[in-house]
Design goal:
Blueprint (H helix, E strand, L loop, with lengths): L1 H9 L14 E6 L3 H13 L3 E4 L7 E5 L4 H10 L3 E6 L2 H20 L15 H14 L4 E8 L5 E7 L11 E6 L8 H14 L4 H6 L1 E5 L4 H8 L52 H13 L3 E9 L3 E4 L10 H16 L10 E4 H4 L7 H7 L4 E7 L2 E2 L3 E2 L6 H24 L5
Parallel strand pairs: 7-8, 7-9, 9-12, 10-11
Antiparallel strand pairs: 1-3, 1-4, 2-3, 5-6, 6-8, 10-12, 13-14
Helix pairs in contact: 1-5, 6-13, 10-13
The protein binds zinc ion.
The site of zinc ion has 3 residues, from loops.
GO cellular component, one term: extracellular space
Keywords: Carboxypeptidase, Disulfide bond, Hydrolase, Metal-binding, Metalloprotease, Protease, Signal, Zinc
Family: Belongs to the peptidase M14 family.
Length: about 425
Amino acid sequence: MLRAVCVFLVLGFALAKHEQYEGFGLYKIIVKSPEQIELVNYLSHTLDLDVWSHAVPGRAGQVLVQKDKKALFQNELKGAGIEFTLESDDIKEILDLEDRLLEAASKKRNNASRLDSLPFDQIYTYHQVDAFLELLAEAYPNTVTLVNAGKSVEGRDIKYIKISTTNFEDSSKPVVFLESLLHAREWITLPATLYAIHKLVIDVTEQDLVQDIDWIILPIANPDGYEHSHGEFRLWRKNRSSAHSLVCSGVDLNRNFDINWSTASSNNACSDTFHGSGPFSEPETTVIKSIFDQYSDRMELFLDIHSFGSMILYGYGNGQLPSNGLFLHLVGINMASAIDNVKMSWNPNYIVGNVAHVLYDASGSAGDYAMSAGVPFSYTYELPGHRFGIGGFGFFVDPAFIEQAGFETWEGIKAGARYVRDNRTKK
Ligand SMILES: [Zn+2]
């Protein structure tokens, strides 16, 4: 059965051309004061920059700048005394390189014999993942249930799997919920959930985690955006709704949840952090809400897997800590240490903290909504953004890191899952 899955997975990879990114510059910027942060924020709005990571004193940021705005951007930075490095003068070259690497990995696998499980050397498309989940549920009917939970804006099925030895009927078990690809371009997050599925269903080495916990895994939370990122727009982040503007499409799904909605997000439909027309205005977030509604009475842990930055973050996005803030932090450190123990040497150690303290204020996130819905341990993982010793290329995937991303993230997931299993807050 799985041999058929894998043969199917090999098919369907298409190269994208990335012309629209030609000449875009990727800058590393170093800020030293609140005034400099403010100027970068101002420039990001007025020059329509793509902020990949926010610079704060002590931690550099990365910003993608359109070709015709690079000179102006550099002048502004120089004028304000902000240190910067041009890491790539043409991001299209990096995008083309990513395509070549992924294509080469895919070709290499055609000759490989490892067809008895899901190969972790490729970033699979929506259709490939969909076919895999369908066949997985068929092959493992005693533990895997595939749920078709609703449709995306463009009509794609949003599917998640439930993994349980007791068909989710033993109410004494905790539920752990893993999600990836809420943000379309964060491709490296998909192998993290697929690896977890692999270790919970196909290559089970941690029997206790399968026996003691009911799992919900949603690998592609934003199918339309994800498909779009495999086509013309590799760096697409949002969903594909065109209902809110005649000019720009897409809602940032991680700003669309009903928790402090619109208080720290954008009202501009063209912004990458546009929050939509109201809480849960999008079908994709409504599906995720329904999962919380259905299982929050038993759900102890929610991990929303994003990239990039090597961070484990918790809420709330306005800087207020929930009543279990200390435990939230300690479990975050447990998970981070487990990952750090096996991470690649050139990636930094994980940072653990409240999202507003570590990064920036953010409202309407899935992680915050989970806590407000009663999930005691809710985290946003930001997977590493470094490419094998070459440096920080953020969202781009090196095939050689795919399995490692799955493997090391699984160490964190295991630590978190075992903690909530052993320290139940709900019974
Ligand atoms: Zn993200």
